[in-house]
Every structure is written in structure tokens, then in C-alpha cells.
Amino acid sequence: AQLCPNIYLDLSTLPGHNAADVLRHVDSERVMMGSDLPESTAAEIEKLFHCGLDPERLANVLHRTADRLFR
């Protein structure tokens, strides 16, 4: 994602510590929250709140990146 402008990342399969590591190295405008199943959505959102993101970066991951990509 850092080298290829058309690559975006979904954090849904990563444990929290790995998601936090990705977010330290990849711009939040290239990362999206995802869930493999509807029943895992709350856990995926909670995981992101524990990654130490500021409100701007958290908003990017939760919805802004997807809004921009899927327009």
C-alpha cells in the first residue's frame, strides 16, 4: 500500500496489535475498517478504538477511506 497507489488495506482479519502496527506504517487514508461477518462488526470497531489513533485518523479508517474509494 505504501508503494502502490491503487492498493488499500482492510484490517478485519488482523489481531489488534497487528492492526496498530499496520497503522503506524501505512497512511490512514489507505486503510479501511472491515468485518468478515456482520456479527463481528462491533469487535472490529472496538479493535480500532484501542489502536491509539487520533480522531482524524480514526475517522479515515472507519468511514472516510471507504467513502472516497467507493464513490
Report on the architecture of this protein.
- By secondary structure, the chain is mostly helical.
- It contains three helices and two strands, in the order E-H-E-H-H.
- It has helices at 16-25, 41-49, 55-69; strands at 9-10, 31-32.
- It has a two-stranded parallel sheet.
Quick overview:
This protein is mainly alpha-helical and 71 residues long. The chain is 48% helix and 6% strand.
Highlighted features:
71 residues; mainly alpha; two-stranded parallel sheet; 6% strand
Secondary structure: number of strands: 2
Residue windows where pLDDT falls under 50 for at least 5 positions: none
Give the percentage of residues in beta strands: 5-15%
Strand order, largest beta sheet: 1-2
Q: Please, what is the average pLDDT?
A: 92
Radius of gyration: 11 Å
Q: Encode the helix/strand succession as letters.
A: EHEHH
Tell me the number of helical segments per DSSP (H or I, 4 or more residues long): 3
**General form:** globular
- What is the first-to-last residue Cα distance? 20 Å
**What structural class do the secondary elements suggest?**
mainly alpha
The helical percent reads 40-55%
Question: Main sheet, how many strands, which sense, barrel?
Answer: 2 strands, parallel
List the helices and strands and how they pair.
Layout: E1 9-10, H1 16-25, E2 31-32, H2 41-49, H3 55-69
Parallel strand pairs: 1-2
